Amino acid sequence: MSKKVLILSGSPRKGGNSDILCDEFLRGAQDAGHKAEKIRVAEKKVAPCSGCYYCSTHGGACVHKDDMADEEKASADTTLSCFRGYADCVEGAVEKGVLVAGGVYEPGAVRNTSAMAQAYEMGRNV
User: Fold this and answer.
1) What is the rounded CA–CA span in Å between residue 54 and residue 81?
2) How many CB atoms lie under 10 A from the CB of residue 46?
3) Which of 41, 58, 62, 114 holds its CA 20 to 30 A away from the CA of 124?
4) Residue 4: beta bridge partners?
5) Is 0.70 surpassed by the pTM of this model?
6) What is the pLDDT of residues 66-103, one digit of tens each?
7) Is 38 exposed, middle or buried (0-12, 13-18, 19+ CB in 10 A)?
8) How far apart are CA 49 and CA 46, in angstroms?
């Protein structure tokens, strides 16, 4: 059964490593017969504040700590928690998997990792 798949690319660079993985996931999903679309979040106007007012009682420090350039898989937890909170509000949204590819910094470096095959297979199996 064909599915509608939305891919949110959080890469700040068009053609960056995260964006390349999203493209590979997209290719896998399309090859499996699904209707898939990728949106680059960096191209959208996204307000960084969640209105929690944590900063007002903590010397201006923000509650959101974003360490995604880190190689530790646990560093993605805050981003994933935020995404899951958003997805809970979208009727019918289902998380089908998570792929974290750490340790790739130079544009295109992800092409030489096992994450490429993982992204493609995840796309095929949504």
Assistant:
1) 17
2) 8
3) 41
4) 35
5) no
6) 433 745 666 677 778 878 888 888 888 888 888 888 77
7) middle
8) 9
